[in-house]
Amino acid sequence: MLDVLSKIMDAFGAAIVVPVIIFFIALLMKVKPKKAFNAALNAGIGLTGFNMIIGAYTPIVTPAINRMVEETGVNLRILDTGWQATSVVAYSTQVGMIFLALGLALQAILFVIKFTDIFMPSDLWNNYSFMLWGSMLYISTKNLWLSIGLMVLSNLYCLVFTEIVAKRWSVYYGYPRCTMSAPHHICSVPLAMAMDWILTKLGANKVRWNPETLQDKLGFLGEPTSLGFILGLALGLAGNFMRLNTLTGWGEIMVIGISTSAIMAIFPKIAGIFASAFTAITDASKSTAKTSGGKDRVWYLAINDAAGYGETATLLTGMLLIPIVLLLAIFLPGNQTLPMVDLIAIPYMIELVICISNGNIFKSLISGAIWCAGGLYIITAVAPIFTQVAIDVGVNLPEGAMMICSFAVMTNHIMGILFLIFMTQNPLWIGLSVVVYIALYAFVRIKKEAIHAYLENMAKLEEEAGIVSEEGAAV
């Protein structure tokens, strides 16, 4: 059964699995079959469009990023080989495959009994994040039940964080009743909220670095496509600094510039198609509540993190963070991790930071840099174990690499800490992590509406600061 489930995931992927789930959910909510089919089809078109545009963009930018890394001359012991290596490891271990089936059942049951308002099975593929950490623990301890316990507890933590930020992500990125729940990114929620509160108290919300303000201040140069072109040129120049005397170098610089501009132009159109897929479900949910006389259950469908990648502030901040993260890797004392392949994935990693700051690039750069810096240390601590797991399942190490990692997936403060706690096999520490979860769940369950209102009010502060700034009353 586990092999069949794995083969289904490999054969179809999110672009098929998510539309099928949407189709049946729509039918269950009494949406007419034709409308349900169109909604599912638009979801498939949107996801395929996201993957195509990101898939085409990545190989254009990656050579320049790799060259930038290589020209630093830094020799760190842990090489980032990309998220693909972690997914291979996760789907190649028995304990990982056990959770693929267990996680699907757990997430579905928790939604049905209303333990959570997040329908997480629709993003089944990203369960490989739980499977990765569980596989690492099993290889280290040979304790199957301990490994399953880690994966289940990690899943529960991620569901709570998703509950916290679901409305804010949905509102900011414009996907009705949808949220991002990717385990490797959702754990940034506590840090993102804390940093947003601190930075707002310090007045950082008055620093108007967002797409709308930049467009007002810079005119046509501030338009998303122009900003994308300029940032792409800058990234191309950084990656071709030693080749400025060649036509090939300048050709790559211009191609990266126009490709980044294309992302800014095309992505919103694909996002519009994808968002339209959920209108039928949202309308049906409201209609059902009215006809039944009951209270509308506000629930959210977990969708792939690709849905937010090309949003203007997200992509701009992610590109700006690439050189910052490289500098952090070079100068942070004790770090042994060299980000490389996954640098292009930074926009995925900061989606929660972006939506919580309501698109404030200045605040997001600070919070994103702190999240990435902490991730470098987490990876430095766990990379030896991951490398051993990867070797055991047949992953070949790149020439010259002593250890490997995935910067995008293993930059995960919460799951990294939980892994290290379970590694101790100390019942007191493990019990404490369970108690913390129970307290967090109870608090969020009781205060969820207040938390959502707080996040929306913080977003409103960003908008109000922009109005004051335009009137000349703030810097």
Automatic annotation (TrEMBL):
Sections of the chain in a coiled coil: 444-471
Keywords from the named record: Cell membrane, Coiled coil, Membrane, Phosphotransferase system, Sugar transport, Transmembrane, Transmembrane helix, Transport
- Major place of residence: membrane
Q: What is the lineage of its organism?
A: Bacteria, Bacillati, Bacillota, Bacilli, Lactobacillales
Bilayer disposition of the protein: Multi-pass membrane protein
Where does the record say this protein resides? Cell membrane
Carries keyword Nucleus?
Answer: no
Does the keyword Coiled coil belong to this entry? yes
User: What sections of the protein cross the membrane?
Assistant: 12-29, 41-60, 88-112, 146-166, 224-241, 253-281, 313-332, 344-362, 368-391, 403-422, 428-444
**Pfam families in the record:** EIIC-GAT (PF03611)
Instruction: Spell out the protein name for this chain.
Output: PTS transporter subunit IIC
Specify the domain of life of the species encoding this protein.
Bacteria
